[in-house]
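Write out the 3D structure for:
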Amino acid sequence: MFQPALTMNTVLACVDAHGHPSAVCDGATWVAHRLHAPLNFLQVVDESEAHTGETHLSDLTGYDASPTRTQALDAMPGSHIIGGQSHSQQLLEGVRARALHLGHSMVELSLRQGKLTDALLDLSAETRMVVMGLHSHHLDSPWRQGSHHLEQALQAVQQPMLVVTRSHFTPPSAFALAYHGGAESLQLVDAVADCELLQGLPCHLVHVGARNPDIQAEMSQAAQRLADAGFSTHIVIESGDVAQVLGRHLTIQQLPLLVMSAFTHNGWRQKLLGTTTSTLLRRIPTSVLVLR
């Protein structure tokens, strides 16, 4: 088991051969750049789900499979007991090389055996933010297979999590905030106001539901809080299906990031992160940042 010497500010990126590793690498590197934080790539091998297929790394720009690149992983204590070791090594070295190619030098690697949630909890004291993709065998068709890994991770960790939902990651120049209303949404607004990752990015404050004086007044208050924190804010109120409205707005406005809350288990979060995750978030065309 490899224990990197990292700090509480570490960005922990969970990589998997079937979980958009290059996109996760790009998203995690963007986060680490924005937060001026070290980056730790975590690969967890679950023997009950181990595969022996070839790992394709051709899109991991900068990857070098020479012996000198894999030497550090070969020497990792306990690595010999992990099934599929060579695939894990190639994957970790590939994402590290890609992160270095993107200009981020503070990179560590962790290779573990067991359950993802156990590893996340074990590393939680040194983790500032978690980044992960989807364990899907169909690129650009997310949320179909293995979404339980993500759902378990969302339930287990207390840190903010960036979920990369596609086979590519676009650094956002603006973002949408899913605003359902009430005290929990105001908590989310405060979390956004304090979020270094989002500083300087314009915000589209989106509410899906009926337009009435109460929600308009509440969203004006939320927009003012964001303005006081330096965010330019555009208010959107539209009725309809939550995922459909959000997805359409994200697509039309070309917003590559949706921000939502993990504070509450109300209808919005139940629909987006509950038992229907596989169905509904497949319709969200962007990465999702879950704040706590």
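The two ends are 30 Å apart (CA to CA).
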